[in-house]
Design brief:
Blueprint (H helix, E strand, L loop, with lengths): L1 H35 L2 H9 L12 H11 L11 H14 L9 H9 L8 H17 L2 H11 L9 H9 L8 H9 L4 H4 L1 H21 L5 H9 L6
Length: 236
């Protein structure tokens, strides 16, 4: 019995030590990144780019579609999603590498601001957490969502929801139908697969998933859901 107890304590100590070392290395990676450019400065530079679209000019249905399929607690929670964060860290720690990607909108913004997806090690994953904290406590959810919508890649050479909306449908991103909004919201998950020039059918399957999530979250009515499913989307 004593041997088993010591073995368990030894394993726990090893896990805690390993986790502590990873956190330290991740924090060091975070400090190195923000030393070169603070999170506030990185956001400021991005939002001052030509054509940047503020939250108020983004279609409400698109916002709801993204929330439904990517991060349904985004606007309701305070701070960031500890449950999703701990789950991802445990899964990555168990695998010994980063196997679970960004699970929240804020996390994806943090990753894209500092190009952390180019390295994708555990240290970068933990550095991402500290950057999330900076973002959540320095900017409103509306500002963070606008960053997400503007910096995502929607396939076929379109960066940002405005370029994608104009390029695919020939209309401004505050004038999308529910069906079009759901289609666009699903593409950044895998733009190489869902871009409309080569993956239209797969993108439409993804759109159905987004619409189903919107209906489950009562973001659209049953009538709106059925109408969106039957809408024939015209692309340019």
């Amino acid at each position: 019995m004593k041997f088993i107890r010591r073995l368990i304590l030894g394993i726990l100590a090893a896990v805690i030590l390993t986790a502590s070392l990873l956190v330290y290395r991740g924090y060091r990676e975070y400090r190195a990144s923000v030393f070169q450019k603070s999170t506030v400065m990185a956001v400021k530079e991005y939002t001052e780019k030509s054509g940047y679209l503020p939250f108020d000019e983004i279609d409400t249905d698109f916002v709801n579609a993204v929330i439904a399929v990517e991060d349904k607690r985004f606007f309701s929670r305070h701070g960031f999603d500890w449950v999703a964060l701990i789950r991802a860290l445990l899964n990555n720690l168990e695998a010994g590498r980063a196997v679970e990607g960004a699970s929240t909108i804020t996390q994806q913004v943090a990753k894209n601001l500092y190009y952390l997806d180019r390295r994708r090690g555990l240290e970068e994953k933990i550095a991402e957490v500290f950057m999330m904290m900076d973002l959540e406590y320095s900017f409103s959810k509306r500002e963070i969502f606008a960053l997400y919508a503007n910096m995502n890649y929607y396939g076929d050479g379109y960066w940002g929801v405005k370029n994608a909306s104009l390029g695919y449908f020939g209309r401004e991103p505050n004038d999308l139908s529910i069906a079009e909004a759901a289609l666009l919201a699903g593409i950044p998950n895998a733009p190489g697969i869902y871009q409309l020039s080569t993956g239209y059918d797969r993108a439409m399957q993804r759109q159905k998933k987004v619409l189903r999530r919107m209906r489950e979250e009562d973001m659209i009515s049953e009538t709106e859901y059925q109408t969106a499913l039957s809408e024939e989307i015209q692309t340019q």
